[in-house]
Amino acid sequence: MKLIQNMINMKINVITTDELLKYSGQYNIKVSRPQAEKIAAFLRGKNFDIFNDQTRAQIIREVAKIAGPNTAKEINKLFIQFTR
What we know:
The chain is mostly helical. It has one domain (2-83). The protein is 75% helix and 0% strand. Helix 3 packs antiparallel against helix 4 (53-67). The radius of gyration is 12 Å and the shape is globular. This is DUF2624 domain-containing protein. InterPro entries: DUF2624 (IPR020277).
């Protein structure tokens, strides 16, 4: 299980704008290219652990500042799916 968690966290920590846009389209989350660029830049290289509730909440707060609360809620739902 720890291996899968590490793989998911690694993907989050190196995500590109295009990958984020692909996933947002796949999961029907509305994110513009400029928003995706800012979100990807925020996530990249930070070594976040989305399996930690406090860390995930911190990420979602920052995403809400970048893309708005509705988008942040949808991304949180996506993160929760990844962590189950």
